[in-house]
Amino acid sequence: MSSDYSKQYADFIGALEKLFHIKSNEPIEDMCSIITNTLISKYQLTINQLTKLIREAIRYNYASGANYVKILEQIGADLTGVSDYHFETEGSIKFIVMHDQIDKFKEYLTQNSISGDIFLKIPNFVYNAYHYLKFFAELSLIEACAYFGSVNIFYFLISNQISEITERCFSYAVIGGNQDIINECLKKHKMDIDCLRSIIRAHNHELLEYVLDREIFELDDLYGEDWGKAGNCMGDANYRPIYKDIIRYQNLNAVFLLFKRNKYYIFPWGAVFPQTIDIFKNNTFSNKHNHTKCEIIYFACKSKNSDICRLLLESYNQNIVNNNEGDDECISHGIYISEKDKYRKTALYYAAKYNSKETAELLIAHGIDFSEKDNDGYTALHFAARYNSKETAELLISHGININEKDKYGRTALHIAAIYNRKETAELLISHGINIIEKDNNGETALHHAARYNNKETAELLISHGANIIEKDKYGATALHHAARYNNKETAELLISHGANIIEKDNNGATALHHAARYNNKETAELLISHGININEKDKYGRTALHIAASNNSKETAELLISHGINISEKDEYGQTALHHAARYNNKETAELLISHGINIIEKDNNGATALHIAAIYNSKETAKLLISHGIDISEKDNDGATALYYAAKYNNKETAELLRVHLKICDIF
């Protein structure tokens, strides 16, 4: 076979290059056809993978942002955070710079000035499992010209000394790809690792060849984690090694170019790409050149490359890794199969994470120990549950994995499925007899976790299979307490509809309403009240939900409680009203609400202390000021004959003491 492994994958490489360099005025039909026929049909990229790639392409080809949104629509992708984004329109100064309209730019300058360090913000639509987080790369005017390859405006700015070439210009220039701008940047700055990162991410293949031919970077540059910067030119919060960018941006051409220079440039992470199978068939590698701290089989498992996994597991002739270079380590049958990474995860964990059933089958067939646990005590089944890898979970169960095994927090795979709302996997686990009422180290069942994370679907499944709805954790809290604490109204409603005891108390005597009040969860509190909970119920310290709301400044919930007739004058076991609690924690807003609803401002506790005494003891100056403004008697004494000023002085609360002294003098004057 030819040493040029890239030729047979020219269509894949070309498709990604075209995707990252589509023109703003280019029809999208051809690109959509390539995506469908090449990337999806032939190379089996998922819509989720393509969505991530296209979102990244927006960052590196912002001028074509509107086209990318259309492509996402065409392939049925998730448009969250993108569909409502407004890209620059014709006539705006940013559009003028973007398209290097030098005459219009000069005309604009005759009537306007461009001030400030930030000219353009390019969105970084960062994705995680729950939502998209939008960050921005902030570019100056000269940096924007470099980024867009707007060479005429770029030269105009530097020749007229309007702008100077910044250090970051180089990184933007390699994205823009204009050779003249790149040459100007070379006069001022050296190419750094950020430039290499931009070249890789932007699929700038010609420039990558140029860089590699001149050996500007070394092997170690692919693996460095920390380059001494807060972030790169595109606003990433953290750096990752370059090889991870090659994987993330599916830059297969970079893989082959690096391999041509040095085979160890792609070892072992190249196994992520199924297109590298011939490389690993036809070449030998030594583990002493592995700089990733992960075995090659991990990378193959992460990307569901069952063919490469099979090659690794079934090669006895040491074609993959040999000892020729004095290294006594080799990847072969049975040697590394149960090797663990720094998190103590074996390859089977990654097969479970990515639901690579075929790879998992291979690993099991070759004797991997599937009862192994990682640093968190997870088995591969826990991992399958977390990522809803139902097929792999079923495989593990069929091979006899302990379905009730617990992690170091005492959680079974069902707890994990409940936390992450993995209903399908939860259903599978239940069908195979997992203990549905098993408790973790905190005494929580899977239903407690489903309630905490508002995973209504999984909660409903658990209840339908007999989960005890009134089961308590070690703190005496039911699932309803958890739902109330985290304001999970939908799950709370479900629990109540299935007979949850609405007045059940935890070990502190708190009802779900107390929990809702503590965390200002007005919606759930309203639900509980509508279902008839005793609004004046007390905990073991004699506190109503209003006391709790006052202690935590939960003003909105306090207002709700008052509107539903809670006893505003109720006292706890120490004789304190909600106003005493608001004063203690300096919760001025809630104190004001209580006063406006007629609470007795001079009410005393068991020690004869008013709210002002409490404010003085805890140096709650703002609340003390409020109480004084509403006419509280500053000279009032408690059972020991002490005034508020006495306590402020006793506890060295200078601010409150001074406030009280000033108002005492005013009182003396009048």
UniProtKB/TrEMBL annotation:
InterPro entries: Ankyrin_rpt (IPR002110), Ankyrin_rpt-contain_sf (IPR036770), DUF3447 (IPR020683), Multifunctional_regulatory (IPR050745). Residues 163-220 form the DUF3447 domain. The keyword Nuclease does not apply. It holds the Pfam family Ank_2. PROSITE patterns: ANK_REP_REGION (PS50297), ANK_REPEAT (PS50088). ANK repeats lie at residues 343-375, 376-408, 409-441, 442-474, 475-507, 508-540, 541-573, 574-606, 607-639. Coiled coil: none annotated. It comes from the Eukaryota. Keywords: ANK repeat, Repeat. The keyword Cell membrane does not apply. This is Ankyrin repeat protein, putative. It comes from Trichomonas vaginalis (strain ATCC PRA-98 / G3).
